[in-house]
Design goal:
heterodimer; A: 685 residues; Methylamine Dehydrogenase, Chain H; four-stranded antiparallel β-sheet; 56 strands; B: 632 residues; alpha+beta; five-stranded antiparallel β-sheet; 28% strand; NOL11 (chain B); Nol11_C (chain B); transcription regulation (chain B); RNA binding (chain B)
Amino acid sequence: MGEFKVHRVRFFDYMPSAIRAMAFNSRTERLALSRADGALEVFNFADSYFQEKVIPGQDGRAVEALCWVRGRLFSAGLNGEITEYDLENLRPKYTMEAYGGPVWTICSNSQGTHLAIGCEDGTVKIFEVLEETIRFQRNLDRQKGRIISLSWHPSGALIAAGMMDMIKVFNAESGHATHRLLVERGVGASKSREVVVWSVAFLSDHTIISGDSAGKVQVWDGVTGTLVRTHLVTKWDVLALSVSRDESSLLAGTSEGTVVQFQFISSTVDQHDKEWVRTRTFKNHTHDVRALAHTDTAVVSGGMDTQLVVRPLLEKVEKNTQESALRKIAFPHRSLVSCGKKAGMLLFQFHGHLELWRLGESDGHGKPGDSLPVKRKPEKLIQLKRKGDDHICCSALSPCGGWLAYSTISSVRLYRLQYNGSNISITKVAKLPKVLRSAHQLCFSSDSSKLFASTTHSSVIIIALSQSECKYLHTLRPKSGTRQPVHLMSASEDGKWLATANSDCEIHVYSLHKLKLHCTVPVYSSCPTAMAIHPTTSNLVMVHADQQIFEYSLVQKEYTEWSRKLQKQGLHHLWLARDTPITHLTFNPRNPAHIIMHDTYMFCIIDQNLPLPDQKTLFYNQMTLRSLPEPERTSHSHSFKICKTFQHLLCVSLLEDHSLVVVERPLLDIASQLPAPVRQKKFAT
Amino acid sequence: MAALYEGYTLCGLVQAQNQSDSGIQGIESERDSDHVVVTDSTRSVTLYKVSDQKPLGSWTVKQGQTLTCSAVYNSHTKEYVAVSDNKVSSDVWRVHSVPGGEPVVLFQRGAVRLLDSLLSAPQQPVEEVLAQEEAIRWSTTVIAEAAQFVIFQTEQKGDHFLYLQRPNLNAVQRYRLEREEPGLSPLSFSASYRDKHINLLYLYPNGHVYQSVVSVRGPGMEEEAQALPLPRNLLFALPVGEGLLGAASALALDEAHVAVVGVPHPSAGAGKDFLCIWNTNFQTLQAGKEMSGKIYGQLWSYSSKLFIPHGKSLSVIPYECPKSSLASALGKLRQARTEGEMRKIHTNNNTEIKRTVSHLSLCYTSCTLSSTSTAPVEEVQREVEGLLSRSDIQELQPSVGQLASSLVSRSVADPAFYTPGTLAQLVHTQCLCHSVCPDLLLLALERKDYFLCQLCLQLFPDVPEAVTCACLKTFIRCSEKLSIVVVDAQGAVLPTVFFQHGLEVLQTAYSDTFLLPHLKDLSSQQVILFLQYLQFLYLRYSQDTFTQTHGLRSPTLTQIMDWVCLLLDAHFTVLVMTPEAKGLLLNLHRFVKSQVRLFSELGKIEGSLEELQKIKVKKEVGQYSIEVIELF
């Protein structure tokens, strides 16, 4: 296989934002989550937890709560607004001022006809959900003190509201408060501090469960308004509650980073009186658990430590399967790094700015395992701050390093870069064609003469670039009539082809010479996570969220022989067991049989000339091969060459000089930049 | 602790032509401990008065004749016996004579005759005991059970044999020595009689010193019978430095001490010109002295003086080997914790010793000793003070033991006589230990001198468990009678007397097995009180406020815990049955439980910190590097 010079880059200070809120739609199996920077993400739990959509945040937008109403997603935040999102165009659809001050919570009734929001001014406002919008209906009796949390009774007739020091139960029809449940404050010093009821859950048997800032999970009888049981679960706050659909299990997320499970069971055998019993404690977070979702099979949690954790409930899933493994999603499922292969440059995308770096140089040669002397250090050429309030949703650097483009939901900006080795100048291209208003994906042709921008309904706008002007050329449209956004786009090295993939799992290939759709790859059930067109054979290689790999011949318009062989034999179980998606794929011009791809924990070079590993083959065999004498290696090697030396990868790419670039962002570095947890981490736990 | 004192020269050496020879054939004792007969290797015999370092008389054989064995003194006849030119009737090997025994003649072919019988019939036939090519290498005579033995060692074609002969019975025991490494013959032999056995000590050039014990009532040897193998045990493997030992000799001084000459000092490089005293029981070096000039591997010992030819002189070196005790053998006290307070003397095992004692101070000691047995208390005090102030205590170490013993025995005999201050002073010198003066601590207990008790417990490294326990009992008993109390955290009442004295008991060295039976003798009330006290200490320690209370030497937490365990072990059933103990035990249990919890937490911390250590090992990766990897 051979030696590679590797630029090991750790200067991309990518910092994910804390998770604020979560909502799980059990019908579509989509989890929506919001982050502290206002960004929204949608994960498809039915497709290997793939992050299929990202709606970038906006300065000043703080999403405090999320709520699905059938397939529609609503949010409310401390800016006092309710927002519905356009999940096809990945942007807010509309925003409505609630006129009640900061909004702490939003929740819908089980019928999906109304939304209730809890406001700082003490009002619970009811909105009617209409076809295209929502309409304010009325206020419930205004209370003294803010409404922090809300829960509808499944019947829709009652609403429980968590406040300071108390819970109120409202009649949703009359708007009058029917019960006032007083929540005891914490002991000691916190006695003087108001207790915040961070979360309430109203169950069909009229049980109300609350979680509060004194660390209690309390079970109330909503009919009589009496306290049934108090569980002290933490010294700090209980921030979130989530009840399973069948109301047999309840989760409570705490500031300690734990999730405590309660189950509605008989405490003794042969007894019919069931009660809420504390059963398990999960500790998968270092910081506050701010958001929780109880799916049918798993505990989904997120918070300050920015990781989304899916912890399957082992009694609900088949043991020792992919489904039973704990999953931590730390990185976005898309690339935040663009590589100017010819120029040796890297573009890092942050939500508020872009950084352009030139890689360092070394003239030394060394043997495997060596670190070469760095003759020239890497250099940050440009830090480009975005304009406007909207966060950057995509960016691209041309392979030659001469062009840079980024897009927000409101605008696309293109810059001309001129770099002579010591000075860099950046010029904004002033007049962009009007049709180019925003893009979901941006991509340059390999000769840097064209910019492709995907927009609504998976269409692609082609812009011709030249020194003097940039001109709108054409809009490519798929024939499928899809309304979904493109999340992957790849142009071929020879300038002939452009492939796009969207959230409907469709992959369209356009002929750039004919400027029309060339073919559509047969739709596979799992969403593609990375794809690229081979520079010489024009085969399109795709990797999907379920880790399957396909190779499709654009010339023959059929799966290649290798792809069929791979499907027939099946991928190795250890390959399928990986839990992070392949997020980037590229080829080795020196050896056309090589496909280079990476996920968070490894990069892999697939040599199509070598035999595929069967299930009994030692899959991770690099150490074994290293120990074997050279003549014996061939008989033991298989096509998957996996390197785990570099970890927590954000990008692996091959430069024109055949050296590899790996961009690492160790999770430890991210953790070290988090604020101190509420409680000092207990050792050895 | 054995000691070598400053030596002096008895006479110069007449160098023989052969440089490797000291010129001295033998040294024999004469009429008393102060006279020796020195036979040189050629023609003359000289009588010396050792303490005066001067010759009293000298005899020389005619020119052309040589003395072929050293002259001996026949105490019966007050005559000197020497052999010139080997000849009597057959070739003579040696004439041996010991005080209380008759001179015996050992012929070169192994026959033994009493001098008297030989002189009465000079032409009698002398049988051949030894085989062809068997030759005597060494011989001596020993008086055992009123019988005289001639012991000699022979060599025959690399095999070594030992013969025990009783001249008047003509009974011979013959033993074969085990072979050492091929080609090695014993460098020196020494024989002594102890406990109905003859103890042989022999040194090989590889530094191995073996001991063999031969019964004086061993089986007589039949003619031509096979030699019995001689069992041996390795006493030491002395350091030999580079190569093998050439001229060296080992001499048993008493049952526990061996003087060795011509062997390197373990901490002074490879030079072999040392005279050392080793303790055989503890395998420790007790004293060492560098001898100037060449060492010839010859060594004699008469009445606590070593005679050693070296360089161009014959030196006399007085030595002392007090009764061996663990403390003196180890040469240091067990309580390493208080090392700071200890005098350097106790760690001098491995440092080169240049200890000297002047005749003057020896003289003082003997004067003081004589006064202890008769003089009134004040005078004794004065004398001892004077002695201690005059001399370097290091030099006095052996005599301090004698002083203390005589004071103690006088006190025991005479109830009116007791010198607490003087005894304390002697204990303070730290030259004493329990085994040197076993009655001291018991005397102190008897006289209720708790201060001295404490001092002994503190400074003696070798207090037997029985005595420790006796002290403990006395302290508890006397505290039961006194009413001054300390109130501990739980409100339990503890007598201060016990509080102070108990600390020392806890710090003495002991072995569980020996202590346990004595502990069992405590009454349940005593056990409760003691346990209360231990718990009190334990609590105080855990609160970390106790470590240097009142400037007392305080026991370590481990020592306290060990005592708690022992006490519970010895009396658990009794305690469980005693209602008064219940609260105490419950308290103790509660506290121990909380401690266990604490420690398990600490264990976790340790585990985590260990992880940190592991993390550190990982290679530091900077912000950027260019590396080379290889895929296969």
